[in-house]
Amino acid sequence: xxxxxxxxxxxxxxxxxxxxxxxxxxxxxxxxxxxxxxxxxxxxxxxxxxxxxxxxxxxxxxxxxxxxxxxxxxxxxxxxxxxxxxxxxxxxxxxxxxxxxxxxxxxxxxxxxxxxxxxxxxxxxxxxxxxxxxxxxxxxxxxxxxxxxxxxxxxxxxx
Length: 159
Prior knowledge:
By secondary structure, the chain is an all-alpha fold. It has one domain. 75% of the residues lie in helices and 0% in strands. It contains five helices and no strands. It has helices at residues 14-32, 36-56, 62-92, 96-119, 128-152. Helix 1 (14-32) runs antiparallel to helix 3 and helix 3 packs across helix 5 (128-152). The protein is globular, with a radius of gyration of 18 Å. The mean pLDDT is 85.
C-alpha cells in the first residue's frame, strides 16, 4: 500500500543522494548561522534584485518585500531538502514503511533544529510559524518528487 514512496533504482547510489542531502542541509543550516545583520543584508540584496517584479504589482513596501522573500526562501529551501531526503531514504531503506518513518523524522526534526539554531544566534529568533512553513515546503517537495517519479517511471512493456 505504501510502496509507491520508493522505487529502487540501481542508478541512485546511497553516497550520491546522502551527499546531496547533507550538502543542502549544510546550506540551509549555514543560513541559520548567519547573524541577524548579515541575514538582513542578504535579504536586502534579493529585494534589490526582484524589486521590479514587486513594483509591477504595485508594491513598494520594502518590509513586505523582505518578508515575502524570507518566507519564500524558507519554503523553497525545505522543498528542495525533502525532495533530496525522499531520494536518500529510498536508497537506504528496503522497506517503504521504514522510509516513510525516516522521512517523517527529517520532515519534523530538521525544521525544529533549524529554528533552535536561530535562537542561539545574535539578532535572530526561532519562529514556530517558520517551522510550519518549513514543513509545508518539505511536504510540497515530497509531493513534487513523487509526481516526478510517477511521470518518469519507465513504461512496463506488455506481454
